[in-house]
Amino acid sequence: MDDLPSGPMPERRTILVTDDSGPNRDLLCGQLSTLGFWTEAATNGEEAVRAARRLKPDLILMDVEMPVMNGHEACKQLKADPATAEIPVLMMTGFDPRPERSKMVEAGGDDLIVKPIPMRDLQVRVRALLRLKELRRDLRSTQESLRELVKREDPTESKAPFDDSVALTAQALARLIGLDAEDQEVAYHAGLLHDIGQIGLPEALLNKQGGLTPEEFAQIKQHTILGAEIAGPFRPASVLAPAIRHHHERWDGAGYPDKLQGPAIPMMARIVAVADAFHAMITDRPYRPRHTVAKALEILAAGSGAQWDPRLTAAFATSSLPQRIAGTQGEEAKIA
Known about the structure:
Number of strands: 5
Mean pLDDT: 83
Largest sheet: 5 strands, parallel
Radius of gyration: 21 Å
Order of helices and strands: EHEHEHEHEHHHHHHHHHH
CATH architecture of the largest domain: Orthogonal Bundle
Low-confidence stretches: 1-10, 330-336
Helix content: 40-55%
Shape: elongated
Strand content: 5-15%
Structural class: alpha/beta
């Protein structure tokens, strides 16, 4: 994302600092006060959950290792509660961040930082997470507007262009590879809206049994272009439209619509491509039954470096994401 301004925030915002160490809490609260923020403190995860529900802070700094309730469990509770789910959570650890990052993903945290935290790093991370509220507002406004558009064009919503499962997987994959919280939010909405262009295609074509003719496939491919055009007029189009247009490009350049290759494919499009392909494989389709998760992972591995970004397929396959997805898809999709 763009570099953050170093000037004062336009309004004074509240940050909840959660750490069982008194000196750490005092240090962080003092640094944040110097930066112009109001601060409140909690000594463990249980206190943080109660305080967040009462205060509705703009941001929560959450230590990982704490008595009574650790940071991961507290974060899970906060993200599961609609009243606090939208509050950004910056997890803090004094240990190796590599294993902690996957735990953060599972807990729903928005970012991870290693203690002791230099003042400049704290400033940058905090300001980036606070910008999430504005981005989330714009993206959710776009989502609501597009849903209304779909209802007008397709009152029965039979084409179902919104896919929450792909969105959640794209968001988790963005977290897993260390993208910042804003990019994670964009990944979610890009995954949700990636097939919005399907509202311009005939329902019979989308639900056709068996293979497509070359003419029919050419028509199907237009949904990426149409989807980017539909998203174009909305404020976050600069981050959503490229993912929508390019999620069927291939790493080897043989995809569509523009035959982009390798790193030239926008990162959000690459993330959505992996998430979309995996969910398509483990879901029944008009032209084939679903694959097992094991088979889907085998196909992803075979296409790594040809169809999909090898870094993303490796990160996905070695994480707990496939197992978690399998748990939401039913026994048929579980790993063999």
